Amino acid sequence: MAAPPTQLLTAVGFKLISALLFAAMSALVRQLSEATPVGQIVFFRSAFAIPPVLLIYALRGEFMSAIRTNRLFGQLGRGALSVGGMFSNFASLARLPLAEATAIQFVSPLITVALAAIFLKERVRMFRWSAVTVGFFGVMIMLIPNFDAGRYAMAGAASVALTGSLLAILSAFCNAGTVIQTRRLAQSEATASIVFYFSLITMLAGAVTLPFAWHNPTGMELTGLIATGVLGGIAHIFLTESYRHATASVIAPFDYSAMLWALLLGYWVFGELPSTLVYVGATIVAGAGLAVIFRERWLGMKRAPEGEGPRTPEI
Question: Which of 4, 62, 219, 274 has its CA 20 to 30 A from that of 98?
Answer without folding.
Answer: 219
